[in-house]
């Protein structure tokens, strides 16, 4: 099979399923693993896909944001490990900002014994924070129904009255050149403000978000410590080429 035919087949599989494993391509195309790896490198350079651990996935559309329900069970085990590692940086009596998101939500069970004060724009966090009787301040503003986040200019004005020891953010895209990004400009502004109000900032993301860029920039990748799982070795290595970038993995 010609190279162009393999490339077309790979892209067609990704458009249908979103992701594909390296071994599946080897079996279906009856080509060597080294040939398929080379194909994936070429297609990534053409910005047609993103290589991930054990295969490839389609690049995210810049302005498309999955709902909370769609994200909830994706990479759940990885998110729990990331959240546990992130929580280890919290000290007793810290005042923290906890961003809306499914990965940051996994931090909440680890907060009970820390005696922290939490400020959050994540409506999905509230029931668990109440259940565990964790002192919480809810950001006031406009509700974004798809992600259960509070956003908008009022949220920014509210947030600007506070200061934090640590800030924990979710992110849709992390790219060594294009920085931290999210599809919604209003959410990007709130995340950026939270960074400026915090002594330390941590960005929590599973490895599927690495080497991705969405519509609105939040900050440079050197502006926060990145905590991710161990499945994105190549992407982590690229990030670490910049000595100013700090990446912590769960493996």
Could you please describe the fold and organization of this structure?
Helix 8 (153-159) packs parallel to helix 9 (185-196). The relative contact order is 0.13. The chain has 10 helices and 15 strands. The protein has 251 residues and is α/β, with parallel strands linked by helices. The protein is 35% helix and 24% strand. The strands form 4 sheets. It has a 7-stranded parallel sheet with strand order 6-5-4-9-12-14-15, sandwiched between helices. The chain has helices at residues 3-17, 22-29, 33-45, 68-72, 76-87, 102-105, 126-131, 153-159, 185-196, 233-239; strands at residues 19-21, 50-52, 55-57, 95-98, 117-120, 135-138, 142-144, 149-151, 164-170, 173-175, 179-182, 198-204, 216-219, 225-228, 246-249.
Taken as a percent bin, the fraction of beta residues is: 15-25%
Percent in helix: 25-40%
Largest sheet strand order:
6-5-4-9-12-14-15
Q: What is the typical, i.e. mean, pLDDT?
A: 90
**Which structural class fits the helix and strand makeup?**
alpha/beta
**N-to-C CA distance:** 38 Å
Which outline best applies?
Answer: elongated
Number of helices: 10
Number of strands: 15
What's the helix-strand series?
HEHHEEHHEHEHEEEHEEEHEEEHE
Low-confidence stretches: none
Radius of gyration: 19 Å
**Sheet having the most strands:** 7 strands, parallel
Question: What is the secondary structure topology, with strand pairs?
Answer:
Layout: H1 3-17, E1 19-21, H2 22-29, H3 33-45, E2 50-52, E3 55-57, H4 68-72, H5 76-87, E4 95-98, H6 102-105, E5 117-120, H7 126-131, E6 135-138, E7 142-144, E8 149-151, H8 153-159, E9 164-170, E10 173-175, E11 179-182, H9 185-196, E12 198-204, E13 216-219, E14 225-228, H10 233-239, E15 246-249
Parallel strand pairs: 4-5, 4-9, 5-6, 9-12, 12-14, 14-15
Antiparallel strand pairs: 1-3, 2-3, 7-8, 10-11, 11-13
